[in-house]
Amino acid sequence: MPRTFEELHHLLNALPSPNHEARATAKARNDLLTKPQGALGKLEDLALWLAAWQGRDVPRLDKVQMLVFAGNHGVVARGVSAFPAEVTVQMVANFANGGAAINQLCRAAGAELKVLDLDLDRPTADFTQGPAMEDEDYLDALNKGMAQVEEDADLVCIGEMGIGNTTVSAAIAHALYGGDAKEWIGRGTGVDDAGLARKAEAVAVGRATHGAILGQPLQIARCLGGRELAAMAGAALAARLARIPVLIDGYVAAAALAPFHVAARDFLKHCWAAHVSAEPGHGLLLRRMGLSPLLDLGMRLGEGSGAATAIPLLRAALATHGGMASFADAGVAEKTD
Amino acid sequence: MPRTFEELHHLLNALPSPNHEARATAKARNDLLTKPQGALGKLEDLALWLAAWQGRDVPRLDKVQMLVFAGNHGVVARGVSAFPAEVTVQMVANFANGGAAINQLCRAAGAELKVLDLDLDRPTADFTQGPAMEDEDYLDALNKGMAQVEEDADLVCIGEMGIGNTTVSAAIAHALYGGDAKEWIGRGTGVDDAGLARKAEAVAVGRATHGAILGQPLQIARCLGGRELAAMAGAALAARLARIPVLIDGYVAAAALAPFHVAARDFLKHCWAAHVSAEPGHGLLLRRMGLSPLLDLGMRLGEGSGAATAIPLLRAALATHGGMASFADAGVAEKTD
Lengths: 337, 337
Known about the structure:
2 copies of one chain form a homodimer. Helix content of chain A is 49%, strand content 8%.
């Protein structure tokens, strides 16, 4: 695990590739199944993507990890959220007690939920005033995220909880990609018009405050990010190093991974965006990241809820890829042209 | 079950309403759960819709019927499909043997598959030459579809198999809604450019041939439709009469129900479109029908495959609605404004 930015850069510059042979074998099977070529749309793409990253001709989803990271943010003091900061720790307790949306969704989708809270009693610094984290704090959170990924996982899903973290995400996106600060913000958990204006202001000031590091994506992650975002990026990195496919939840999870994508253009090859949320900046960010979301259900909860909702689509992909008969086996006539 | 068009009109003019009380109770529960209001997007809408039609404060999906109707079409003789007509009966055998996509998807989604083939050795007449069906044939197929719905079903999903039936669907849509015949056609199972041109021609000729009945939607269903489409409409009608919610599969299933929607404007209230397919006319048709699809995965298989893929979204909706803690129970602070 990287203990310096140099080591982190080194890892990002030597990422493992998918298994092209497993993908080719899976595709050969796919082409024989009793359906017109491509008629299952993205379900076929998903099966081949899972085959490529799992390195299995017939991929599986026996062990699905749902990793939820929680953090608190100094910028909340600027009145950018509809909920008070103590809700982060209260919701972590709700996860532990099984009462949150993600608990129910993981049970329904057959995923193992792991929640890691990152120093909730010690919010990051307000990024409008200075760096959110020092180097060691950032790298420590990243390493904690990496450590959550289990080598035998067939899929890792990445989500979060953190009052104020859609503001943090907008600040990262604005720093990485520019544009108008307003394009990257939304109502998050339901902030009112005045709060929305404060959010836009914080995002714009954040970029201005950290003008000196705008060309350095990992510094953007440290100075404008948060611990749960660093941990999410770490989890995605550890999954890549173990060639485990990743399902990214919402806006915050995407923003957490964006700096790595800017730093290493093929970083996201093992990732799929589970959904596009109601948060307006999310669709914009996914386009910048070259990701096409599986679902568009107007969700905006976080917690990994969108990723958990998308897991059954992957199961459907594998059920068809693994279980269907071929044209020859079924005695079905093929296309006439 | 209606034995005449008059009886059918009578049923369509006296459709039962949802249970508003069950919906209100379900909504009151939904508003207390530990998430920002509306943060689960369409999952919340789905839970309330299921509550309203099932008449249950806490809806369930214990018994999910997947009804797949198969038919053959005289218009296939005009070279409108990439596959020969015998594929319909071959695919019905594939369903029976468990080798098709829908078998795997139903198993993954916990749905009971019932396949009904409708006189596959006796295709409907070519609608470019005259009516596809006589009154009795149409009503017989409709009644067979009605008979497949079981009173204790919690959800009915409606799909089909029938070489040539995207041409039939385009002909119905063009007759009901007008526009350019080309807007309503697509490549179906993968027809080439020449076949696509023949398809557009057949659809345009179909509308012209039946100019006398264009104002009568049920006559359009009879003259330009097919037995499996009549059966799908019958199944949706029987579900409505029993207040069972319905998930509509693809373009053909939507086209099958469109005449009832034109005949009775609130007919589709108990229906949700599972997905929008790659067939270009499908999105257009859903907008005409006022339906918003749950999924957009580029699927174009039919068989009920899109509906089966969407079932887990409904299960996710019920898992959260039924299983989450309230703010009070979990000790989570509510919104500050």
